Each structure stands twice: as structure tokens, then as C-alpha cells.
Task: structure prediction
Amino acid sequence: MKTISAVINARLQSTRVPKKLIRKFGHTSLIEIALEKLNKMEFFDARFLAVADKELEKIGANYQYVNILRRKKESVLKGVNPQKITFAHYKEIPSEYIFVFNPCLPMIRIETIKMAYDYFQKHNFPSYTSVVPTGDWVFDSLGNAVTNTNPTNLTTNKDVQFYKAAHAFHIIKKSIFVEKGYHWTFNQNDPHMINISTDEHIDVDTMIDFQFAEFMYSSKK
Result:
């Protein structure tokens, strides 16, 4: 068995939805939903909440099986920062592989995470990421069609053969990150795709996402 630990990377300096992880979400919050699930994932070798904000650290202390991993302040600044700074704490995780669990997808199920864990243990790809199938039409910056190139097709559900990142989780090899400073090469199967259901793919990036996810989560509950 390959050793693998799970980590939630959390910060309060989100730009599009201020403090989205701790703002009221139904009767709870996004970070509490994620931590409650992580606390039950006994199949991982270790479980971590990686934070620099004391408010998040205080919340994480309520979960018995989740360890606090302290980050430097520069790793949680607003915007997109270099990976070697943002994820420098990965070097402190005591396992061969790291399962990065995104707290911004409240619909993801523990059973799905266990499925991904089992799949990872049975295969030997350098990295993995969650995906969902898509029939979306995508164009590059010059207006060239990337996905649907069939002039007779005006639908989004015919011959679907593309996948988009769900960002629910990633699995990376610690030694590669330490050596290279990034997660993967984006060559074929690096990352390797793990398909999840579309109903779990509600990722909170904007305020509209937040409101929709809150409605769907409350309806499911």
C-alpha cells in the first residue's frame, strides 16, 4: 500500500467571495462541511488542515482526527502565488503521496473520496485529478474550435468525449513537488483523470456559485 495523507488548504483571503469558507452556509459553513467529512476518512494515513489564519485553526481544533498544519502568511495572500510558496507546507506531510481535498465543493461524498483512494492504490500514475464529462464548446483565444469541430453538430450532448477538471481533489507525489515545485507536467496521464458525478461538481468560486451551492446543499440535507 502506498502511503497517502489528505490535506485541506484553507485561507480567508478569497477575492471573489470574501471569507467564503467561514461565512454562513445554511446552518453551517463550507469549511465545517469539509472538515466533518475529512474527520471520517479513516482510510488516509493522516489528515491535515493547512492554515495561517487563527480563525480557521480554531475551527479545525474541533475535529479529533484532523491535525493542524501551520502555513506561512505569504502562502495565503490574495491572488495566485507561486506553487512552491503556496504549498510549501507539503514538505511537512509524512507520506509518499498527498490527497488535496478542496473544501469549496460541498456536494462531494465521502464514498467518492474512498473510490478515488481505492483507484489510486490500484494504479501507478504520477498524479491524479477529479474530472467530469463535458459537451461544452470551447474555443482558444484566436477563436479556433477546440472541442466541437463538427459543423453538423449544434448540440452539447452528441459524441461527448471531453472532460473538464472538477477541482474536487488532486493526488500528487510529494517527492516530485519537492523537487520540481509543481504538481504535474500536464503530459498524458499526468494528471490521470478520475471521473466523479456531475451532481457533486458544484464549485464555489463566485457569489452566484455560493448561493446555488447553498440551495442545493440545503435541499439535499
Observations:
- The first strand starts at residue 4 and ends at 9.
- The chain has a mean pLDDT of 94.
- The beta strands are 4-9, 47-51, 67-70, 97-101, 128-134, 162-173, 192-195.
